[in-house]
Specification:
CATH superfamily: TolB, C-terminal domain
Largest sheet: 4 strands, antiparallel
Number of domains: 1
Number of helices: 4
CATH topology: Neuraminidase
Distance between the termini: 31 Å
Number of strands: 31
CATH class: Mainly Beta
Length: 467
């Protein structure tokens, strides 16, 4: 393989322009993160505006909460029969992923244990009940039976991502009973539903050579630009085998991307929460996208679950199928670490609002973090929201919606207790929370009203860490 013609130069000390074989790519300068967006397109989901938060110390409001999950069966007799046959075991169901479209909330329940009757459901928003039964989406018939698998149906959905074209994309890992011994009963696949018709419009099975032994595809993010719905790209993380699969809708093809920054940090793999000590060697997990920049490109922000650091790469690197796998080493340096969240700074998922503020979960701290992406990624520029709140107990998934007044949504689910101990079903175990983004950042370092975004806060070396 001949070496690439590689040239890098800096504009105004803020970001790099990199020329590889005559093609220009934008790259983050490790010392400063520039203003990276013009604006984000709206659309998808209507304009419902919930009431303002009335809490200054905790901007989050409870949308729904449950002691345990229930499902809305067609008849009481069918529900009773499902329980009798262990097709539905209430205590084995845990909500994991979340996304929102207008007056609907979508929730995933992966088949981590026996007795999960459906792995994708919908709820009304706002709901008349605080603890409503889940309604399998789009219907019961769409969901397969793990004991008699029909791989054309939904088997074990981990997370979903709704785009500006009124489509919901999801990753079905095809894995059941992962808490006992990983059982890959169906190939992992990417699916999409038209949310206006509730019809499935795409099902794409990942090619065998892009799936490793014990792969677990657990997160998904959709990238649509300039309203070109037919040219969407989808990014899917393989958290256990440390890769990102990129799917092109226009090509109906996918390719697997790799980089050493997708790997977990062994030091950050040690978790201590709720009196439980466990080790998760989870690699690349959290994904969020910048707005389009001057090069009509986006930056992908990413981090492994077992890590304290945040990383970036130009999506142009990922979207160029010719780079993978033959040129993976040549573009490896284009993946950059931009800073650290500090000890106990592990995060699962993240999202960026129209004001270029990133919100991210802090699973070790039972809090939500924020960062104005126009500022350097230093701990002094990282804010914390709703810290020490009893409402947030292991925030596992997070989404920023597309409403006119944007909201940040959090799924709190006590996952470690579910996995390694026993949930107390007389107590609230699962919550869906929402905060207006303006209320969430008010008075924090992420508040744009608190001064200039240029070189704010932080001292040289304040984030020096091994990982």
């Amino acid at each position: 393989m001949s070496p690439l013609n590689y040239l890098k130069f800096t504009i105004l000390g803020l970001f790099h322009i990199v020329a590889i074989n005559g093609t220009l790519f934008s790259s983050i300068n490790n010392n400063y993160l520039p203003p990276i967006g013009l604006n984000i397109r709206g659309g998808g989901g209507g304009d419902f505006i919930p009431p303002l938060s009335n809490s200054n110390s905790n901007p989050f409001q409870v949308v729904n909460e449950w002691k345990y999950l229930d499902f809305e069966y067609p008849t009481f007799a069918r529900r009773r029969s499902a329980i009798a046959k262990n097709e539905f075991i209430p205590e084995n169901n845990l909500p994991l992923g979340i996304d929102v479209y207008g007056d609907r909330i979508f929730v995933t329940t992966p088949r981590w244990k026996d007795g999960v009757p459906a792995s994708l459901s919908v709820l009304p928003f706002p709901s008349k009940e605080l603890s409503p039964a889940l309604q399998p989406y789009p219907n019961w018939e769409e969901h397969g039976d793990p004991y008699n698998p029909d791989c054309r149906k939904l088997m074990s959905v981990y997370r979903v991502s709704i785009d500006e074209c009124s489509r919901m994309w999801l990753i079905d890992a095809g894995v059941v009973n992962a808490t006992v011994s990983l059982n890959q009963i169906c190939p992992p696949k990417i699916l999409a539903y038209d949310l206006n018709t509730n019809k499935r419009i795409l099902s794409y099975e990942l090619p065998a050579d892009q799936v490793k032994q014990e792969s677990l595809h657990s997160n998904i993010l959709v990238d649509v630009r300039n309203g070109k719905c037919e040219d969407a790209h989808v990014y899917v993380t393989d958290v256990w085998r440390f890769g990102i699969v990129v799917y092109s809708l226009a090509k109906n093809r996918s390719w697997r991307t790799t980089n050493y920054n997708f790997n977990p940090n062994p030091i950050a793999s040690d978790f201590n929460v709720y009196g439980l000590n466990f080790q998760w060697l989870d690699g690349v997990f959290g994904l969020s996208l910048s707005p389009l920049n001057e090069l009509n490109d986006r930056i992908l922000f990413f981090h492994p679950m077992a890590s304290y650091k945040e990383f970036t790469v130009s999506t142009a690197i990922l979207r160029d199928e010719n780079n993978w796998p033959n040129k993976a080493q040549d573009v490896a340096k284009m993946f950059s670490s931009i800073g650290s969240r500090g000890r106990d700074g592990q995060s699962s998922t993240s999202g960026i609002d129209r004001n270029q503020v990133m919100f991210y979960t802090q699973v070790h701290r039972d809090a939500i973090g924020c960062w104005d992406t126009r500022k350097p990624y230093r701990q002094s520029n990282l804010g914390q929201i709703a810290a020490n709140s009893s409402l947030i107990q292991f925030p596992n998934d997070l989404k920023v919606d597309r409403q006119v007044r944007q909201g940040v949504w959090v799924m709190s689910n006590r996952l470690p207790i579910y996995l390694y101990s026993k949930l107390d079903y007389s107590d609230v175990n699962f919550r869906i929370l929402r905060a207006n983004v303006e209320d969430a950042v008010a008075g924090t370092i992420c508040d744009a009203n608190l001064g200039s975004p240029i070189n704010v806060g932080g001292s040289k070396g304040d984030d020096d860490e091994c990982y």
